[in-house]
Amino acid sequence: MLRLVKPTYKYRKSFLAALEEFKDVPAGIFDGDLARTNFKAYLTRVKNYETGTNLSKGLVPASTFWLIDGNEFIGGVSFRHRLNKKLKEYGGHIGYSIRPSKRKKGYGTKMLALTLKRIKKDFALNKVMVSCDNDNAGSQKIIQANGGVLQDVINTKYNPHNKPLMRWWINL
Ligand SMILES: CC(C)(COP(=O)(O)OP(=O)(O)OC[C@H]1O[C@@H](n2cnc3c(N)ncnc32)[C@H](O)[C@@H]1OP(=O)(O)O)[C@@H](O)C(=O)NCCC(=O)NCCS
What we know:
The protein has six helices and seven strands; from the N terminus they run βαααββαβαβαββ. The chain is α+β, with helices and mostly antiparallel strands. It has a four-stranded antiparallel beta sheet, sandwiched between helices.
């Protein structure tokens, strides 16, 4: 069964195997180096991030979810609880990534759907912002399949890929 869970020891092995697949691509939201070397500290960091404990300047509280199929780690989501000036311009509420070996199988679309459901249930938000590069065809399709409405396409100094950025809103 496909489900979203908070990071846990239970799927540690599968998560670490997924990190290996990211060797040649940035692991981004997975905080891979710490998870590899000290999984307990990684879990503590994830928890602190969610409760807003000891956050570095410029960060807002964020929840991490893992998409699990059976007992296998498929992908991860970071849900920022609110937007600050930077997130309004780049990043929005939700960032996600599917492990490379599991892409183009529909998981990304389902992971965002499950995330939106979870946010609607647990948080007092009625809409969320998501952003993606204007050449990220997969992410655009995922957002549109989940009801995304394009706000605009901007150039922003915050986009590390130095590409035009699409900003979308999804009503919950
Ligand atoms: C973008 C990403 C999440 C897509 O995940 P995924 O599990 O492959 O997505 P899906 O299988 O649900 O695909 C959704 C649609 O996009 C298409 N698609 C997926 N990747 C694609 C690609 N690289 N190029 C073109 N189309 C693509 C799929 O064919 C599918 O099309 P369909 O609805 O017409 O059948 C994944 O490639 C990824 O993790 N990329 C790196 C991180 C990233 O870009 N995150 C998003 C920015 S916040």
